[in-house]
Fold this sequence. Notes:
Residues 147-270 form the Fe2OG dioxygenase domain. The chain is of the alpha+beta class and 288 residues long.
Amino acid sequence: MVFLKYPSYLTYFFAATAAILGVSLLSDRLRSDHLMAIPRVVIDNLTWTRAIRQSSIDDHQYQVQIFSKDPLIMAIHPFITNDEIAHLLHVSENNFTTSLVYGGEESRFDPNKRISESAILSHDDPVVLRVEQRAKNFQGWRGNRTVIQRPTLQRYQVGGFFDYHYDWEPKRTSGNRITTFMVYLVADCEGGGTNFPYLTRPNGTEWCNIIECTEDGMDGFQGVTFKPRTGSAIFWENFYPNGSGHEGVYHAGLPVKSGVKVGLNIWSWDFSWRSDTAEADNADLPVN
Ligand SMILES: O=C(O)CCC(=O)C(=O)O
Ligand SMILES: [Fe+2]
């Protein structure tokens, strides 16, 4: 028999099995140690099961800076890795169609308001799911009536832009887009910043790697312009706590002057949201 003839194979076999078992037991232990280390406050929170599961599947690290507290606006870097960007661009390459604007009942192409191409991502793709989970984790779970709309890529060529708008839907009285992540996937461009005309530009130079700080950079636009930076995200909340829209988050994607910009929109809807004037009613969960 082979095993008798070559007893060392047996030894190697058992040693290797023991080693694999040991490593996997150890990594299970490390994983559960990691879970145990989650602060009590998270465990007391109703959402802890999900938070724990998610924290174990996405170990992406990023830095966050609060840019503004009212409205709440944060800068996150890097929100997405180069590999994730490459994947999202790859799975979308044949899916871009002309971006539309929503006026009244129907959507239409309006070159005075928006020139870009959009590609809606699938919820089934593991990278899309991971990035969505990251966005959910970042915000903290807000209950099971908060969901993420299918994330969308926006590609802007030279001359592409998106005129001033709010991301929330003014006609709705219940259920709305409560938060926005504007993620920059491709930022090989001049121009193409995200401009908030009603924000006040901070004094000092600390923010100058994130926002335009020079008159040239502002290009005649008012307020604050976030510069597209590959991998970065700007996150903001669209509403005041009483449910009324925050005028400070009025914004535009400024014209791309050269090169290409690709953004990723991640919008969260809260179906418990009620407008400040609305009678309570039951909003439907979204159809994606
Ligand atoms: O491209 C940008 O900078 C802004 C895009 C935007 O506001 C949107 O897609 O809703
Ligand atoms: Fe927008």
